[in-house]
Amino acid sequence: MLKVVVPMASAILATEFVQAQTEIVGNVDSKCIIISETPGVYGNPNPYQLTTAPTSGGVQPIIRYDVLAADFYKAVIEHPIDFSSSPNLDDVVTWSGDVEVSEVSDTNMSDYDTNKVEYDNAHEYQMTVAGSTWFKISSTADYGYNKSFPAGQYTAVVEAECIPI
Amino acid sequence: MKYLAFILLFVSGFSGAHELTPTYPELRPSYVSDVLTTNLKMWNARVDVEYYKIEVTDAMWNDVPFITEERIFKLSYMERREIEIFLPSDTTAQYICTRSMLDRGKFKSRSIISSKVCSKIK
């Protein structure tokens, strides 16, 4: 009798031991999130000029990129080269602008600005480090040859893209 | 203090996020012959954006034909949406992107941010 009970009890105990093991499974997906942290505001320091420069009453837009895995994405940010809405303009608007890294969550991101590629109004960054990167955009529009902008409201769009490599 | 934080939140402007997953979706056969399909998930945490547009392009960023329920869709703040894309079996599609649609009348004298997040087909 004992010859049967002992192996059975051992088998049951062994089964219970196996059942007591619980696995915790986690997956880390590559993921890119674009966060619009601060919308920009144009200041009007001169009648012919609209600028996001803080010294001229403007606010620079700030975009944050959260990348969950390194080397999966590139960020492309375009500063504005036209108004998406404005009063009727009958003269040329000259645009200038820039994009720069303003804050990083990892010191290894400090060379992002050095390594970025610029073409037209686009600034392309390889997101080689996982974490958060804040980009600050500056934009200035000059109207004609020191000509006054017509009164009204002006809006321009900053394009922020996150593209898998 | 509680009220001060609340006021600061409004004074400092809004923030919001735009996310599209998975990063590398795979095409699989659909229930229609010679048609491939894939599913993506989108999350809108941009309080200033309610509409998004789906774009499907090849490696050179040229538009390619695709079918989906709505190319421009409404996605309210903090909502998620499942996106199903159908493509012909000989498609050259490489990227599936969602782009934020901005309401011109909503933003005045501002430099506003348009976000576009893409997934790359495996």
Protein model, in words:
- The complex is a heterodimer of chains A (165) and B (122).
- Chain A is mostly beta strands and 165 residues long.
- Chain A has one domain (28-164): Immunoglobulin-like, CATH 2.60.40.
- Helices cover 14% and strands 45% of the residues of chain A.
- Chain A has helices spanning 2-20, 112-115; strands at 32-38, 40-41, 43-46, 49-51, 62-67, 73-78, 83-85, 93-104, 117-119, 122-127, 131-143, 155-164.
- In chain A, the strands form two sheets. In chain A, strands 1, 3, 4, 5, 8 and 11 form a six-stranded antiparallel sheet that branches.
- Chain A is elongated and about 105 Å long.
- Chain B is mostly beta strands and 122 residues long.
- Chain B has one domain (15-120): Immunoglobulin-like, CATH 2.60.40.
- Helix content of chain B is 8%, strand content 48%.
- Chain B contains one helix and nine strands; from the N terminus they run αβββββββββ.
- In chain B, strand 8 and strand 9 (110-120) form a beta hairpin.
- Chain B is elongated.
- The termini of chain B are far apart.
- The chains are: A mainly beta (165), B mainly beta (122).
- Chain A binds chain B through residues 29-42, 52, 59, 61, 63-64, 66, 72-73, 80, 84-85, 137, 139, 153-165, and chain B through 12-19, 21-24, 45-46, 48, 95, 97, 102, 104, 107-120.
